[in-house]
Amino acid sequence: MYATVPLTVGVSDVVRYFGRLGPMTELAARRTTGDLLASIGLPSGDAHDLPASVRRFDDGAHYRVEIPSVEGPRCVEAVLSEATRLAVPVTRLSQGSGVTLLTDADITAMVDMCGSAGVELSLFARPCAGWHTSAMARSPAGAVLAPATRGQDQLAAVVDEIRRAADLGVRSVLVSDVGVLSVFGRLRASGALPAEMQAKVSVMLPAANPASASVLVSLGADTLNLPTDLTLAQIASIRAVVPVPLDIYIEAPDNLGGFVRHYELPRIVEVAAPVYVKFGLRNSPDVYPSGTHLDATTVALSRERVRRARLGLDLLDRSGSTAVCSGVRAPGLALVAR
């Protein structure tokens, strides 16, 4: 039966009245939302004081360098060659077109080159709604569905591609669907996937706040790619909650905002460590899904991304930063198995 309260009472009387009936005590009524969030392990707000992160990679480093959109063997060769020429300590290469669009020979060649160089290779686990017959994924309001895995048949296809990548020696996959991430975590825990295999959450599965980031980590995420437009304070609030490395675009492609945040690199490294600093490329074409017909373009873009990384690291040096960068074969990298 619902309780009734006389209409002539004041607010304090209401608080005391309901305090007798249940958990709504006067003390609880005075607690702020920030207090409540803090009581469950979340920040009360964004970290506007920009605290320096005390977390580090396993080797004690603050940051690592990632080159994204390395779409095939010729791109891998170009990145590794340019990284040597420009003395850029690249530790991870990631690909966006997906395992599906690489032959076994392509993947084997990429695995062999990355294995020799001691760098991580991460391939995208697709398909997704945006590459299927989804009308919603192509609509202005429904584009948010595009990175999601659509239906159980598609989920099975994604898992099959993850298994294929693992069989060929790849130990890191990009995931853009929360269900796929959950399945990945459970299959790894059961031994169906290699124990050392890592899930790299794609920028297309947005971890835009500490609570979302925490959920993704609980499902098996090993690194989190943050949305490209988060402020330093928002990044710092996520870092305060999750222990895994963060992946942050220092330069983002146009279809992800086109931000060129090189000048913020010293502060990003300071507040987000351990962090993979990613150098995408503004004013460049969207090449997904890629293939050999775009080799000249993707190779040229890959080389320029390494040059952009050199520019970013030079700026970091000039800033006076003492942050340490990992080298090749660093502990914790999802190195290929050959």
Biggest sheet strand order reads 1-2-3-4-5-6-7-8
End-to-end CA span? 69 Å
Helix content class: 25-40%
String of helices and strands = HHHEHEHEHEHEHEHEHEH
Choose one word for the global shape.
globular
Largest sheet: 8 strands, parallel, barrel
Class by alpha and beta content: alpha/beta
Characterization of the model:
The termini are far apart. The protein has 11 helices and 8 strands. The longest helix is centred in the C-terminal third of the chain and has 24 residues, at 295-318. Mean pLDDT is 92; it is low at 1-9 and 14-18. It has one domain: Alpha-Beta Barrel (TIM Barrel), CATH 3.20.20.70. Strand 3, helix 6 (152-167) and strand 4 (172-175) form a beta-alpha-beta unit. 38% of the residues lie in helices and 11% in strands. By secondary structure, it is an alpha/beta fold. The protein has an 8-stranded parallel barrel, surrounded by 7 helices. It has helices at residues 11-21, 26-30, 33-39, 73-86, 104-117, 152-167, 178-190, 210-218, 232-239, 265-272, 295-318; strands at residues 63-67, 90-94, 120-124, 172-175, 198-201, 223-225, 246-251, 275-279.
Helix and strand layout, with pairings?
Blueprint lengths: L10 H11 L4 H5 L2 H7 L23 E5 L5 H14 L3 E5 L9 H14 L2 E5 L27 H16 L4 E4 L2 H13 L7 E4 L8 H9 L4 E3 L6 H8 L6 E6 L13 H8 L2 E5 L15 H24 L20
Helix pairs in contact: 4-5, 4-11, 9-10
Brief digest:
With 338 residues, this protein is an alpha/beta fold.
Which structural traits does this protein have?
single chain; 38% helix; disordered N terminus; TIM Barrel; eight-stranded parallel barrel
